[in-house]
Specification:
Blueprint lengths: L1 H21 L9 H10 L8 H24 L5 E9 L7 E8 L5 E8 L7 H10 L5 E6 L3 H13 L4 E4 L1 H13 L2 H17 L3 H13 L7 H27 L6 H20 L6 H20 L5 H8 L29
Parallel strand pairs: 1-4, 4-5
Antiparallel strand pairs: 1-2, 2-3
Helix pairs in contact: 4-5, 6-9, 6-11, 9-10, 10-11, 10-12
Length: 344
Amino acid sequence: KTRIDGQNAQLEADLLKFAIVINIPLAVFDYPEWKKLVKNVDACLISTTLCHIRDILIPQEVGHVRTVQIKELWMCENLTITFDGNTTRAPESESVYTIHVITVDRVVYVFEGNKASDESHTGHHLFQILDNLRPSQFTGIGSDDTGNTCVAHEKVQKEYPWILNMADPCHHLNNLTKDICNLPHFKGIIKDVHRTVKFFKKSTIANSHLKKAHRVHMILCGTASTVTFEMNLQQFFSVTKPLAKSITCLESSHATMADVYVFWLAIMASMNYTLQSDIGLPNDVAKNIGHLCNYHFNQSIHDGPSDIFITSFFLDPCFQNSNVLKGINPLTINMLRISGASGF
């Protein structure tokens, strides 16, 4: 009996891990076909059920993981706590709030995940998370910059002033990208591309019919409509590509605080070059893009909750010979601005 109990326990643990890693519905374990499969493998084994996994195995595993996490994190210093919201997959999409704790070795611990609520991103809730460990272990806190999270940041920093309040650079860059996409000049090209990709990516037959229609109706490249489409698409790529690349790089676990400032400088320089180039952007559109870049740059770097990005850039030995740091009078530092086709 002891051997059978051990086999059942191991089978349950392996099945739970398999279901979570492969992301299969737990309801599979209630299917009669599954019960028959287990019985055919070994008649002494007991087939697990959805209720057993949901009500017993998962809570047990959560408790075990939390114990191991706290034991490991208690040995760490200079931790960073981050929190963010996300949405689960359809059809039953739900808002989920996750809290991560990151070590100086860039090891990320998923510390908590729950349905998003008014309590899940308040200062009181963060105090509870910090108290599970020791507030003195933490040196940084970060999240997106929504109203509730900003208030939570301020409460935590007021109580523990040594914890640095860090803005989410990817959140700011994503907001800048959305603002550019919302400009009326790009509405048409975004709509056309979205409708085309949404339809044709799901049907190989539709692609074949499209190619056939090209030949039948003698639709060729170089017409006025295709040239306009290509020009508008190139304009859109030119102003959003630096942002997309920067977001991808800064989402890496190897990105540093200094990298945030470096990528912002690269974005501003790239935008300045693009808006000064002859890519067919109307002057008013170039001005609007420039204003948006300046606004989000200042919001993230100059008007952020702390000067950690510039400070990290200054202290990073990799940039000690950077031209950005040469000949600076700290009393007369001007904000970095970019100009459009006719200046703004």
